[in-house]
């Protein structure tokens, strides 16, 4: 500034300096623009480098993904191939096992067919033997009949002689009575007259012989009639009479009796008599009864049944009700009665089925304790007679019958012979009663053993010679108490509940005032429950010892 002021033309100098400064400023601006351009170019290059790096990274990632996909695809193909190989090996093994199983089944089928053929040949031989035995027995029976007829004709002639001798003896007795005053002379005349003595002795002897012969002949004839027309000895209980004419009077009186049409449904209110069963089981038995009745009316073959379950669960009573509701006759036998018959068992079995076929209404043959008679035939302890009896029953039940319904009852269904199981069409399990069923059973037997005790009407003869049963007074025995007893008697069968109420009756009769109150009832229930538990322990201990 001092130089400018000292110069002669300061204004021009200032202008020059100003222009120079402006030029420098322009240069600085140009350099700044150039720097900015270079900076922008560098930024563009950096962006391009970043873009190239990102592009390379994306390409690398895509290449990596492609390689991973190819690797996974290769692994999947290898895994699928390994699975296919494993599946092929399993299929081959399965085919091999199926072939072996089919071979075994074919072998088993051939063995069964051979066994069936052998059994069939054995059955045919036994059938031929039975036919020969039947022919022999028939011939013997005919010979015995002819002998009996000859004996009867002989007896008739003998009776005529005896009657003549009796008439002669009566004549002599009358003569002796009229000449009682001359008895001494008459006796002397008889003793001295040999002819009269012979006639008298002969008459007495003929009379004694006639009486003896008549008695023995009547026994023989009655045994023959009983064998032909009577009930088989294997039958323990039957709705049919022992003889064809014996049931006419009982059926007529039962039909004329008051309340005969109501049946036993009024006892429990369930339409099933004294049998208390689970509702589903009772429904099935009623269905079977209706089906059996329709089967009989349509002349179709009957279906055989198997009842299994613990003892005392109502199998026998249910069979009775089933026969009654289906309109069939009913017969009961026990499997344990067959073994003591020995060699006669086969004949008795055939007599039983011949007798059953004579029923015009159809017959339900109930075999209780069937496992004692129809067990597996390969058991070592089974005698030859039992095996023959089982074969006889199998022979008579080989075809479905239109006359006989076979009902078996057992506690051990697994012990039955396979041929017997093959003849069964319906299988019913009788379990132990539940709490509701136990409650109904308690009410039933309370009414039977307690409430109705001493209320029955007795006849004149019984009132004179038999002491009347004392009436029991019941105080405070409510349904809640019976339900409590039903809950405590878990595991009791129907028979055990009946015995419990019989024990209650005995305890009441053993008391002083013959009154049943809740305390006495609970005391007897406690005792019977403890006794049941002790029996269970003894049963478990006995089973472990075996």
UniProtKB/TrEMBL annotation:
GO terms for cellular component: mitochondrial inner membrane; mitochondrial nucleoid. It comes from Tripterygium wilfordii. Keywords: ATP-binding, Coiled coil, Membrane, Mitochondrion, Mitochondrion inner membrane, Mitochondrion nucleoid, Nucleotide-binding. GO terms for biological process: mitochondrion organization. It is found in: Mitochondrion inner membrane; Mitochondrion matrix, Mitochondrion nucleoid. This is ATPase family AAA domain-containing protein 3-like. Gene3D superfamilies: P-loop containing nucleotide triphosphate hydrolases. The keyword Hydrolase does not apply. It comes from the Eukaryota. Its main location: mitochondrion. SUPFAM superfamilies: P-loop containing nucleoside triphosphate hydrolases. The keyword ATP-binding applies. Residues 301-434 form the AAA+ ATPase domain. It holds the Pfam family ATAD3_N.
């Amino acid at each position: 500034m001092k130089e400018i002021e000292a110069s002669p033309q300061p204004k021009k100098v200032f202008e020059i300096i100003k222009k120079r400064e402006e030029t420098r400023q322009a240069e600085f601006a140009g350099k700044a623009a150039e720097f900015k351009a270079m900076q922008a170019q560098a930024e563009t290059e950096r962006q391009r480098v970043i873009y190239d790096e990102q592009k390379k990274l994306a390409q690398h990632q895509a290449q990596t993904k492609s390689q991973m996909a190819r690797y996974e695809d290769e692994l999947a193909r290898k895994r699928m191939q390994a699975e296919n190989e494993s599946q092929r090996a399993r299929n081959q093994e399965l085919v091999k096992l199926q072939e072996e199983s089919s071979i075994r089944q074919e072998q088993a089928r051939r063995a069964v067919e051979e066994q069936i053929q052998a059994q069939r040949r054995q059955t045919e031989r036994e059938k031929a033997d039975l036919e020969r035995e039947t022919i022999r027995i028939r011939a013997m029976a005919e010979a015995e009949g002819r002998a009996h007829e000859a004996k009867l004709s002989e007896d008739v002639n003998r009776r005529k002689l005896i009657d003549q001798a009796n008439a002669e003896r009566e004549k002599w007795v009358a003569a002796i009575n009229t000449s009682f005053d001359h008895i001494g002379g008459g006796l002397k005349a008889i003793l001295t007259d040999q002819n009269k003595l012979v006639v008298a002795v002969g008459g007495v002897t003929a009379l004694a012989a006639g009486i003896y012969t008549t008695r023995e002949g009547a026994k023989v004839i009655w045994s023959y009639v009983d064998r032909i027309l009577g009930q088989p000895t294997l039958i323990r209980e039957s709705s049919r009479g022992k003889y064809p004419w014996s049931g006419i009077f009982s059926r007529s009186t039962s039909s004329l009796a008051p309340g005969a049409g109501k049946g036993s449904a009024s006892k429990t209110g369930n339409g099933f008599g004294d049998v208390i069963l689970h509702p589903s089981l009772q429904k099935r038995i009623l269905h079977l009864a209706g089906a059996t009745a329709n089967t009989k009316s349509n002349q179709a073959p009957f279906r055989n049944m198997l009842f299994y379950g613990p003892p005392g669960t109502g199998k026998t009573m249910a069979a009775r009700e089933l026969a009654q509701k289906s309109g069939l006759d009913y017969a009961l036998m026990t499997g344990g009665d067959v073994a003591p018959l020995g060699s006669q068992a086969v004949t008795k079995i055939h007599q039983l089925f011949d007798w059953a076929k004579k029923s015009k209404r159809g017959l339900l043959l109930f075999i209780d304790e069937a496992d004692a008679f129809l067990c597996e035939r390969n058991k070592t302890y089974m005698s030859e007679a039992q095996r023959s009896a089982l074969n006889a029953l199998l022979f008579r039940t080989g075809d479905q019958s239109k006359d006989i319904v076979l009902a078996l009852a057992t506690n051990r269904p697994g012990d039955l012979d396979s041929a017997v199981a093959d003849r069964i069409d319906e299988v019913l399990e009788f379990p132990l009663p539940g709490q509701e069923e136990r409650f109904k059973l308690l009410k039933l037997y309370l009414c039977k053993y307690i409430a109705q005790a001493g209320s029955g009407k007795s006849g004149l003869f019984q009132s004179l010679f038999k002491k009347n049963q004392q009436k029991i007074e019941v105080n405070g025995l409510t349904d809640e108490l019976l339900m409590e007893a039903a809950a405590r008697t878990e595991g009791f069968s129907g028979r055990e509940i009946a015995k419990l109420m019989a024990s209650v009756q005995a305890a009441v009769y053993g008391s002083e005032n013959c009154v049943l109150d809740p305390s006495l009832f609970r005391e007897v229930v406690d005792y019977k429950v403890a006794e049941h538990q002790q029996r269970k322990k003894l049963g478990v201990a006995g089973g472990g010892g075996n």
